[in-house]
TrEMBL record:
This is Ig-like V-type domain-containing protein FAM187A. PANTHER family: FAM187 (PTHR32178), IG-LIKE DOMAIN-CONTAINING PROTEIN (PTHR32178:SF6). Keywords: Glycoprotein, Membrane, Signal, Transmembrane, Transmembrane helix. The chain crosses the membrane at residues 180-200. It is found in: Membrane. One of its GO terms (cellular component) is membrane. The keyword Cell inner membrane does not apply.
């Protein structure tokens, strides 16, 4: 029994034929339904680029996994990975704004926009749309919302070209009462004139003999 439990990792079926009869005939075991679970195992194919060196006999004498940034001494110097450009963009609620990919991998391929791992679908323009992607592969927000605040990444050939962090802020308008502003300006100018007049008057008295 201990061997069976070890082989099945303590997950032995209740009605397994090798289980002792006194266990299989127990009232709890009899009332228990047979359960079966089927699970498919899928292993992804390897996409690694491996550089191999063979001798005259056709045997591999050197192997380098280029996908893991490992290169052979007889290979050419690999090109540098393009730098990812990151930027922060501020927008005002209910205003229009455009997001352009800040980076460019110099590849004549379309730009794919993502939020995290989610790909943004290509949204064409129509009169009722508040967000769409134009012909220049820019994200256009006709009317910003607070929920539009996010990090948008642009990709070319499955390579990250750049990221844009959009921050939507509230619209702050300074509403002033122009009458109070006028009275305040007049008061400040009046005080300034009085101070200058007193200074000049005191200076005149000081110069008299």
């Amino acid at each position: 029994m201990e061997t069976l439990l070890y082989v099945f990792q303590n997950k032995l079926p209740c009605k397994f034929r090798y289980i002792p009869n006194y266990i299989r005939k127990h009232i709890i075991i009899k009332q228990r339904k047979i359960e079966m679970m089927v699970k498919y195992c899928k292993k992804n194919c390897s996409n690694d680029v491996v550089f191999e060196v063979y001798n005259k006999a056709g045997k591999i004498i050197e192997s380098a996994n280029n996908s893991a940034s490992i290169y052979s001494m007889i290979q050419k110097i690999p090109s540098l990975v393009p730098e990812v450009t990151r930027t922060i963009l501020y927008g005002t609620i209910n205003k229009k704004i455009q997001i352009k990919c800040p980076g460019n991998l110099n590849i004549e391929t379309p730009i794919i926009w993502k939020i995290g791992i989610k790909i943004l679908p290509f949204i064409k323009y129509h009169s009722n749309s508040t967000i769409f992607i134009d012909s220049r592969m820019r994200i256009v927000f006709k009317k910003l919302k607070f929920t539009d605040s996010n990090i948008y990444s642009c990709w070319q050939n499955n390579q990250l070209a750049g990221t844009v962090k959009l921050i939507v802020t509230g619209e702050t308008e300074l509403k002033l009462n122009y009458q109070y502003m006028m009275f305040g300006t007049i008061a400040i100018v009046s005080v300034f004139i009085v101070v200058i007049w007193r200074v000049l008057k005191g200076k005149t008295r000081f110069t008299k003999h």
